[in-house]
Amino acid sequence: MIFLENEQICTSIASKGAELQSLKSKKNNVNYLWNGNPEYWGKFSPVLFPIVGGLKNNTYYFEGKEYQLPRHGFARDKDFQVKQLSATEALLTLSDDEESLKVYPFRFVLQLRYQLSDRAISCTYEVLNPDNEKSMLFSIGGHPAFATSTEGGLKYTDYFLQFNKDTELVYHKVKQDLIDSETAVIELKEGKLPLNHALFYDDALVLKTLKSDCITLHNHKNKNGIHFRFKNFPFFGIWAAKNADFVCLEPWCGLADGTAHNQHIEHKEGIVTLGPNETFVRKWEVECF
Question: Residue 190 — pLDDT band, cuts 50, 70, 90?
């Protein structure tokens, strides 16, 4: 475990999965991250790599060969090499190895860089293709779960998400871990999505046309919340485990397979192609208040 702190906030990060596991305010002693209760969902903020979501029959094809990957890939279950750069910054690195090449035939270097600044933490994904000749195909995304505390008489339905640029959410339904072509619409009154557990009984809300680049989690009864900022992620997921007191805000570069997908990874919607010796960078940030 690695710990970062400044005058405003403190965090803990596990080497397994390079996973952020707490985000606490020193001022009010609130942990803004989900507590990882395994009765509902035993993770905190996994990184999704080298795929986002599920594959059709957990299988994909590349250059005539068949490969299997679990939902959201393998990075979240791997041990990263950890380097603490300062009291407020850490770098965690995962590279291809003999085991990964059996299920994902690409060389890669994946780095997660965590940095604290005032009341905010940023998570930067840095993907390097170290191959001198071969392009790399991948998806990457975040899955941070934010607590919706029920202390002090609060209920899950007291919470809402405030979108800075959207008046409606057009979402795709998830069927057996795959993205259906059918869509539904949620109208947002003054840009707000009230939370209720039933929103996620059929899995995540998968958004392909989100305009917002800042989503605020707040409630009607106290002043605690977060601003979640992100850029250049073409897709977004919102999810919670059944009846659990958290909400995941998930910026994605990539998607689960569509129900009609042909399973060839080069045809996968949202797949990123990274040329030899190129680097791909994306970042999201959480500001606590």
Answer: very high
